[in-house]
């Protein structure tokens, strides 16, 4: 029983990075679908006066 | 040497829009939709992609919510490789590495100062959502506005040099940003990667990811004699053999080449019934 638990823990420890990466990928895809890339383009294609310290 | 090459190529590709440097304009094409995984100001005349911190903050200001697109890209990258991005891809990291070569002897940063970046990360995420200027009634990308030295160096200075009309807009805020940039540039000579380790919100985020990322530095205990050579070679001065998942490790992988017993490796986490090769419990 203990061996199985530690095995599960091992698997979880191995794949937690992958699980989180997949969650991040899903967030990314949802953001793309909801049009956030257009908003990013709109912001990034104009000079950001705050970023360069002018406003 | 391989790392330096990757850093230089990444910096050149990320800032490869040459007409911008000639005309004092910025790239406005479709690639600007792409969120880069590292700090690279999108107002830099050469920038081809969007800075994640700038994009996250700007979207927070305009939509009053955190961006799933940017957050997802960062989470996916961090969960796979952690701070490898800082060590191998970030152009501002490259600058810090090069400045560090000017002075061999480095000043040690107190542990408490290394925690400042987590506060900066939280404020970077939350302030644009929570704090509205009472006079203007508007929020602002506060990190980009008051701190980001990459924005001043990559965008502010070149754009002001190339655009006389912009120069007339420069006031006290610009002076503050240039002053801060100078302080950080000088600090880069005497302290190893001061911006990454003390102020960078992305460094803080990827540092947290270091502990759980799929790719890890791993120590083979059978080969390791705890001689400490890897720790001496580590530019951050980390005891690599004891703590390969440190949030301060930028994964430059210098320790791997240093270890003559080949006890350190870089790769996907191996399954060893709840413990990894280093013997360190993961959860």
Q: Keywords for this structure?
A:
heterodimer; A: about 55 residues; mainly alpha; about 75% helix; about 0% strand; B: about 280 residues; about 5% strand; globular; disordered C terminus
What does the model show?
Chain A has helices spanning about 1-35, 35-45. Chain A has about 55 residues and is an all-alpha fold. Chain B is mainly alpha-helical. Helix content of chain B is about 50%, strand content about 5%. Chain B is built from 16 helices and two strands. Chain B has a two-stranded antiparallel sheet with strand order 1-2. In chain B, helix 8 (about 115-130) crosses helix 14. The longest helix of chain B is centred in the middle third of the chain and has 19 residues, at about 170-190. Residues about 275-283 of chain B have low confidence and may be disordered. At the A-B interface, helix 1 and helix 2 of A face helix 3, helix 4, helix 10 and helix 12 of B.
H/E element order of chain B: HHHHHHHHHHHHHHEHHE
Mean pLDDT of chain B, rounded to whole units? Answer: 92
Record field, number of beta strands of chain A: 0
Termini separation of chain A: 63 Å
Task: Please list the strands of the largest sheet of chain B in the order they lie side by side.
Answer: 1-2
Specify the biggest β-sheet of chain A. none
Low-pLDDT stretches of chain B are 273-283
Radius of gyration of chain A: 21 Å
> Quick one: which chains have the greatest interface?
A-B, 47 and 71 residues
Beta content of chain A: under 5%
Q: Unreliable stretches of chain A, pLDDT < 50, 5 or more residues?
A: none
Query: What would you call the shape of chain B?
Result: globular
Helix content of chain B: 40-55%
